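tool_call: predict_structure(chain=1)
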Amino acid sequence: MTAKDYPDKMTPEQARRFRDDVLNIVSQIPHGRVTTYGTIAVWAGWPSHSRMVGRTLRYTPGAELLPCHRVVNKVGRTAPGWSRQRQLLEEEGVTFKPDGHVDMQRHLWEPEAPTILLFLLLIVI
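tool_result:
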């Protein structure tokens, strides 16, 4: 195990960078598409931190201005306790399976490497 495996082992600078990367990735999710907490964690450079992605979106002031409703878990389940999330997704044309999960085969968005890496690089500069 490395320090990267545990959020409490992040330096303050790493935590700020993670937060910024998460918010920037979420801002790129296209209308009518969804991505997962795990995908965002991977692109932010901390693949074992999908839960921390959720906490970042919930507790960062201003995150509600981003399309956070487009982030679901790996099977397409929406966030517990946020009933409006489904409505927002349906308004964008996202469909749900009979089990109540997003149809991930139709609506999953995975960032393309050159696009996301360029975007993250521009933030560093």
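agent: The longest helix spans residues 12-27. Proceeding to next step.
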